[in-house]
Amino acid sequence: MTKIIYKMETASLAGLIEDLFYLLIIYYVIKFLAKLFLPVIAKKVVQKASEQFQQQQQNHQQKSNTQTSNTEKPKEKKIVGEYVDFEEIE
Q: What does the alpha-carbon distance between residue 68 and residue 60 come to, in Å, rounded to a whole number?
């Protein structure tokens, strides 16, 4: 049978500095990519929102045009009964 040997790693100053270095590199890479791609993404989002707004405006105008062109007579109010004013008698 083979023996399993566990190697215990201890914290060291060199390991800490190496980890901080990697974190710093990752931070600057993400920052560079964000400057590169975020303006393009934001521009596309604004264009899409503008297109949706224009489409909603057109739909609203079409609905209002069809509603005004319809010559339906307004609904008549039902006359339930006659209003009778009354006085209290003591």
A: 12
